[in-house]
């Protein structure tokens, strides 16, 4: 029995992910003495980071309330073309805020 560790870097899989939220990894090997071929496939779901919403003041009916939205980019490169839109019961952000 032997354990082999391999690292898949973001730079390697980034061009192939697109808007997908998963990677499909396939490992194959051959037993030299018997010629037997072994293969295993694994689907790995990529976790997206969370948005954190925090009220910065009291929520009073009929009054505005400031809300802090926090998102931390886990990628080693800047995000481009991102926007933020807030919606809810009786709440509508008329146009997205570009980030």
From TrEMBL:
Domain of life: Eukaryota
Coiled-coil annotated residue ranges, if any: none
Keyword annotations of the record: Transferase
InterPro entries in UniProt: Ig-like_fold, Transglutaminase, Transglutaminase_C_sf
Molecular-function annotations in GO: protein-glutamine gamma-glutamyltransferase activity
Signal sequence residues: none
Protein name as catalogued: TGM1 glutamyltransferase
Protein species of origin: Rhipidura dahli
Gene name, Swiss-Prot/TrEMBL: Tgm1
């Amino acid at each position: 029995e032997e354990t082999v560790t391999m690292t898949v870097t973001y730079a390697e899989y980034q061009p192939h992910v697109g808007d997908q939220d998963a990677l499909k990894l396939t490992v194959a090997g051959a037993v030299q003495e018997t010629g037997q071929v072994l293969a295993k496939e694994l689907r790995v779901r990529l976790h997206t980071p969370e948005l954190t919403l925090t009220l910065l003041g009291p929520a009073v009916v009929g009054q505005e309330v400031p809300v802090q939205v926090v998102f931390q980019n886990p990628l080693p490169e800047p995000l481009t073309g991102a926007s933020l839109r807030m919606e809810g019961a009786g709440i509508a952000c008329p146009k997205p805020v570009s980030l």
